[in-house]
Amino acid sequence: MRKKIVAGNWKMNKTLPEGKQLIKSIIDELNHRNNKEVKIVLAPSFVHLQNAVELVSEFNQISVAAQNCSDKSSGAYTGEVSAEIINSVGCEYVIIGHSERRLYYLETNNILSEKVNQALNNQLHVIFCCGESIEERNDQKHFEIIKSQLTEGLFQISDNQIDKIVIAYEPVWAIGTGLTASPEQAQEMHQFIRMVVSEKFGEHKANNISILYGGSCSSSNAKSIFNQKDVDGGLIGGASLKSVDFVDIINSF
Ligand code: 13P
């Protein structure tokens, strides 16, 4: 049985005190209504990581993720944070390949493959993001684009390492726009991603990998998206910044 996962990507939001408060409210909310079948992942900014790990330590269901890691292992790379440093604070996951990183920081598939290697070499689970732009979808190139993002950015890993990967499908046109992919569009792409994983790593691995949907996912649309056969949860941006909304989404399975 593959894992159901709801991950909150806080992006560049919340000061340290605000972040502590949000985690406390999420735990408080979960103590009232919790879907224990769901793995919860919180991805605050780097500055929060150690605190977040401490705050969720009593709550096995919640893990902490970094939003990025360096493609280098260590050394003179001012401003970068290595996978080893991330692992050293007790963080278990890292998000790699978010479209905002691809777009604003020019992260290529090649760089992303190095980041994935760094993460896996340092015992981190990877949430690997892929997604097409609206132009690519309008040109009917969305399947091709997703396949090349996976092939060039992720598929250098070994058969054993795929067990440490979660894939997040986040169509760029749906991120922060209020335009969600329809449940059918999400299912169609998730099924395609599972097929591409199966071609490379075999059916068993493909059936076990969790594939999350991201892009304007909210408490009002999560249920219909999570109901789809190949959707195993969500990577949530805006709605992860409010405890009630986030826990509503967790309880949407
Ligand atoms: P929104 O949920 O704000 O659209 O963001 C999605 C996202 O980018 C999560 O990584």
Account of the protein in words:
The chain is globular, with a radius of gyration of 17 Å. The protein is built from eleven helices and eight strands. It is 41% helix and 16% strand. The protein starts with a strand and ends with a helix. The protein has 253 residues and is α/β, with parallel strands linked by helices. It has a single domain (4-250), classed as TIM Barrel. Bound molecules: 1,3-dihydroxyacetonephosphate. The site of 1,3-dihydroxyacetonephosphate (13P) has 14 residues, from strand 8.
Taken from the alpha-carbon principal axes, the silhouette is globular
- The CATH C-level class name: Alpha Beta
Strand order of the largest sheet: 1-2-3-4-5-6-7-8
Mean pLDDT: 97
| Ions and ligands | 1,3-dihydroxyacetonephosphate
Structural class: alpha/beta
End-to-end gap: 15 Å
Query: Are there runs of 5+ residues with pLDDT below 50, and where?
Result: none
The overall strand count is 8
Instruction: Supply the CATH superfamily name.
Output: Aldolase class I
Percentage of residues in helical conformation: 40-55%
**Total number of helical segments?**
11
CATH architecture classification name: Alpha-Beta Barrel
Task: Profile the largest sheet.
Answer: 8 strands, parallel, barrel
Features:
253 residues; alpha/beta; TIM Barrel; 8-stranded parallel beta barrel; 11 helices
Task: Kindly summarize this structure in a few lines.
The protein has 11 helices and 8 strands. The chain is an alpha/beta fold. It is globular, with a radius of gyration of 17 Å.
